[in-house]
Write a structure and sequence with these properties.
Distance between the termini: 12 Å
Largest sheet: 2 strands, antiparallel
Number of helices: 4
Number of strands: 2
Order of helices and strands: EHHHEH
Strand content: 5-15%
Structural class: mainly alpha
Length: 75
């Protein structure tokens, strides 16, 4: 992995993060997959909901990304 490929913990557009987890997928498919993973991980959903997560917001805040990475691993 090169320096440019290293994951950075910051705010992300949902599609941008989804494509990091599923780079071979189309943007819409990657987003659907990430959304499904989040929804089906009960502890992650509880943590995100406690943070005020809004599934309709297009941006994930840094603390939400940190929670996702804790539960799903680094992309």
């Amino acid at each position: 992995m090169t320096k440019l490929d290293e994951f950075s913990l910051r705010s992300y557009n949902k599609t941008e993060l989804a494509l990091m987890y599923s780079p071979e997928s189309s943007p819409s498919t990657a987003l659907q997959c990430l959304t499904r993973w989040i929804k089906h991980c009960g502890p992650l959903m509880k943590e995100l909901e406690a943070m005020g997560y809004n599934k309709y917001r297009h941006t994930l805040f840094r603390h939400e990304v940190a929670a996702i990475v804790r539960h799903l691993g680094e992309p």
